[in-house]
């Protein structure tokens, strides 16, 4: 009886839409008319759609750059913020603050920072040292870079998780290594990172799930332009559904995305099997 409200909500608001999207992925549906069963036509057209492949390429480039960098920077900042220095709580707060700023506000601020003219903060700084900055969001070669930088700016959540993992590493290991004459980097690569592998693996899985669903900043800042240079997979699915009213086509894209995320999650489990150190084992 206590679980009943949650179970009702789970089946109505989660399970039912998932099953409905699976049915719609095999149908032609534009909201105004009833779904028309067309079998695999949506999936057939999907793989011949050039914008689909462009959106997939943009998403993969973004994922394979952002995910490794977020892990490297996250561990680096967590190790630095784990040192015994004065004002540590202030530094930790500063690193975490970007994560609690609403993502729409973040996007607008970064849109101003990377404006293509000298009114943009970054280009204005470059002009002071006699460098002409690119047009950023108006240039297909540069449009993706500000979005990558913005995603790395708000890694406070992962830094907080890494910090929690560092707190669980027994200090006795460091004390024993110091007696043996181990330096900073020896302790980092032989103690810290191996003992932190469960936390790294957790952030990797969460990162895989989130990075392939990147949507809001691109929608607000570029709307997928210029020339589809920032048309992420989720953004194209949204545009297909709610701008072109091709909900069946968008549903098929959603299930392809589900398969991609499942594959890379399985690959992560397969690759790191036996390489994650759990203290209880």
Provide a descriptive summary of the structure in words:
It is a single chain. The chain has helices spanning 4-24, 41-46, 50-80, 88-100, 103-113, 121-128, 144-153, 156-167, 171-179, 184-211, 216-221, 233-242, 247-272; strands at 27-28, 36-37. Helix 3 crosses helix 8 and helix 8 (156-167) packs across helix 10 (184-211). The mean pLDDT is 92. The two termini are 38 Å apart. The radius of gyration is 23 Å and the shape is globular. It is built from 13 helices and 2 strands, in the order H-E-E-H-H-H-H-H-H-H-H-H-H-H-H. Strands 1-2 form a two-stranded antiparallel sheet. The chain has 281 residues and is mostly helical. The chain has one domain (34-272): Orthogonal Bundle (MetI-like fold).
Characteristics:
281 residues, 2 strands, mainly alpha, 13 helices, globular
Itemize the secondary structure elements and their pairings.
Blueprint: H1 4-24, E1 27-28, E2 36-37, H2 41-46, H3 50-80, H4 88-100, H5 103-113, H6 121-128, H7 144-153, H8 156-167, H9 171-179, H10 184-211, H11 216-221, H12 233-242, H13 247-272
Antiparallel strand pairs: 1-2
Helix pairs in contact: 1-13, 3-7, 3-8, 3-10, 3-12, 4-8, 8-10, 10-13, 12-13
């Amino acid at each position: 009886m206590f679980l009943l409200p949650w179970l009702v909500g789970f089946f109505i608001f989660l399970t039912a839409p998932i099953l409905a999207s699976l049915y719609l992925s095999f149908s032609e549906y534009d909201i105004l008319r009833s779904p028309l069963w067309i079998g695999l036509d949506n999936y057939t057209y999907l793989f011949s759609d050039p914008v689909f492949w462009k959106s997939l390429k943009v998403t993969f480039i973004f994922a394979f750059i952002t995910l490794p960098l977020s892990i490297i920077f996250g561990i680096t900042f967590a190790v630095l913020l784990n040192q015994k220095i004065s004002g540590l709580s202030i530094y930790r707060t500063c690193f975490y603050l970007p994560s609690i700023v609403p993502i729409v506000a973040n996007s607008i601020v970064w849109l101003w920072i990377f404006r293509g003219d000298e009114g943009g903060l970054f280009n204005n700084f470059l002009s002071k040292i006699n460098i002409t900055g690119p047009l950023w969001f108006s240039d297909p070669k540069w449009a993706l870079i500000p979005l990558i930088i913005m995603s790395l700016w708000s890694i406070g959540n992962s830094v907080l998780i890494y910090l929690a993992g560092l707190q669980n590493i027994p200090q006795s290991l460091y004390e024993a290594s110091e007696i043996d004459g181990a330096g900073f980097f020896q302790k980092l690569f032989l103690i810290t990172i191996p003992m932190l592998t469960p936390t790294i693996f957790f952030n990797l899985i969460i990162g895989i799930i989130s990075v392939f669903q990147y949507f809001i900043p691109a929608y607000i800042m570029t709307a997928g332009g210029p020339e589809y240079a920032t048309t992420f997979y989720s953004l194209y699915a949204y545009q297909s559904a709610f701008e072109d009213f091709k909900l069946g086509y968008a549903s098929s894209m959603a299930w392809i995305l589900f398969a991609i995320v499942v594959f890379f999650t399985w690959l992560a489990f397969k690759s790191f099997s036996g390489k994650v150190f759990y203290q209880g084992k």
